[in-house]
Amino acid sequence: MKTLRWVLIGVLIALAIWLLNKFGIEQVREQVERFGIWAPAILFGLRFTSIILPVLPGTAYAILAGGVFGFVQGLLVVALADLLSCTFNFYIARRYGRGLVERFVGQQFMEKVDRLAQRHLEGNFFLMTGFLMTGLFDFAAYAVGLTQTRWQSYFIALIASILIAKPLWVAAGAGIFEGSQLFLGFALLGAFGIGIVTAVVQRRTQD
Q1: 31-45 in b/e burial notation, b at 16+ Cβ within 10 A?
Q2: ∠ CA 165-167-168 to the nearest 5 degrees?
Q3: How far apart are CA 43 and CA 57, in angstroms?
Q4: Would you give the distance in Å from CA 205 to the centre of its chain?
Q5: 12-16, 57-61, 104-108, 173-177: which has the highest mean pLDDT?
Q6: Rounded Cα distance, 122 and 101, in Å
Q7: Measured between alpha carbons, how far is 26 from 47 in angstroms, rounded to an integer?
Q8: What is the band of 2 on the pLDDT scale with cuts at 50, 70, 90?
Q9: How much is the pTM?
Q10: How many domains does the chain divide into?
Q11: Of 28, 133, 140, 196, which residue is the least packed, with the fewest Cβ within 10 Å?
Q12: Are 100 and 92 in contact (CB under 8 A)?
């Protein structure tokens, strides 16, 4: 299933690039604009769903948001979707427990949630924030809800992770679609930093 997740991400990114090459970014944006106010709402819904159901790829939607809506609006859509969906994940885990979480993530991925929940996240704010910054953030949101972490601590960690990590993917999309060296440079620099954080927290997961 992990392989399938990355295959789906690759397919969505390839589709976005294909649309860009075939129609051009301006025509793609014109098609999106035909949805009017519903365009950001549709992308918001796709991103929101991909976090609640972690088997669906969400990274491609963040990149697409930057390319179609630009950095500022794209980041707003992604950040709001992540804030609400991760809050929902935490609430579901805290209110209804492991049984309902397993229905959302599936039995195959529940082991990953359990492993994250056992990392003593409630006692280490920076480790919790680190997990929420990585590609495991959707699972981490469920996992933290299964611990004794206070809601206030989780919310602060979630806000911090969104402010630090989410601009990376949106900037990558804006850079790719707009040919901006500045955005691409920012995305590459951010990817290096996130890569270090991911390596550290994954090592903690395996310990």
Answers
A1: ebeeeeeebbeebbe
A2: 70
A3: 13
A4: 19
A5: 104-108
A6: 18
A7: 23
A8: very low
A9: 0.75
A10: 1
A11: 196
A12: yes
